[in-house]
Fold these 3 entries.
Entry 1:
Amino acid sequence: MIHPSTFLSRALLADAVFSGLSAAGLTLGAGLLAPFLDLPESLLRETGLFLIAYAALVGWLGTRSSAPRALVLIVVAGNAAWTLASIALLFSGAVSPNLLGEIVVVAQAIATGVFAELQYIGLRRSGGVAAA
């Protein structure tokens, strides 16, 4: 268990808010967004549904006075993996988004990567990772 620094708590809560807003938009608006982004409606909706659970978990972590170090590390690693997977998706040929769709995927990948970095810094400040 670690005692999250204020920095880590805020990074987790910011991620939860961003993910929660994305979850609502993707889950409820997948049918409207799909043609504008040229991305599959099912991909958008399923991503939104996943983000509901993710936002709840990260929000819960961000409000704890102590948190399992391993769980915070999983969030950091998951955000880093999400960033890489988002970019890989664009190069895979599995989807063919239009320019706006590409911009949206890249923008959320960057935001997710920033959250991973901020959370890692916060974890280090909380004594959860040895300084390099």
Entry 2:
Amino acid sequence: MKKIYYLKTCDTCKKIIKSLPNTDGFILQDIKEEPITVKQLEEMHALTGSYEKLFSKRAKLYKERGMKDMTLTENDFKQYILEHYTFLSRPVIIANNKIFVGNSPKNVTAAIEYLSNE
């Protein structure tokens, strides 16, 4: 599978996608227009081993709801991601059985290097 979950209104996501090599054949899914399904989230979880790794603690709602002071379980992370697109750390790039989550420079570099060798 070759897929990128992103927000088309996010300049960072657009910049990262533009920087990726060899993206022909990738499916782009704007998670605001087409929310992720339980099955898709479970596929991402199978590759990361953790819903927390897929969860964005930088989301505006995370701060607004005072979630940093809460003790969240893996199931909580899963439910929040399914509840609102903003809780998914973006972009999520899946190429074959490799997954790259979020926009940290280290992660983006790793995705670029991996895709360069595809």
Entry 3:
Amino acid sequence: MDVTPSDVHVESARIQRQIEDYLGLGPGNLLFEFRQLDAQTRLDLITVNPRHQQSFLFRYETGYDRLDVLRKMLAYVQRFRDEESSYTIQWRARGDKELQTSYFRAHNAYEALDKLYYGRDLNTITVFSVVLNPSS
């Protein structure tokens, strides 16, 4: 059976919807950014906070094509709560007066901070605290 580009597009859309549904995020709150890195495809899954409109890296995956990375991402979102710790980061964007609180799942505090700073200059955000939350 030959797989057509249309089949790939339909399957990609289906998996993206599954990821959105599993995470409980509405349209526009989850961005799927694909790019080629040498012979691999990388997917950056980015969350957008509806309250302050800041975006953060949720997770990235690499694989041999678009469907491969989407399948890996779906597998990750279905199990990440069991594998990673929860962190609370309090921060403020340069020029803002309001302190923000964001939550991240990560293997360690450095990975949580990488997710916070994803795609931005380190000088645009001041971090006030990084707290490992008790596991339940």
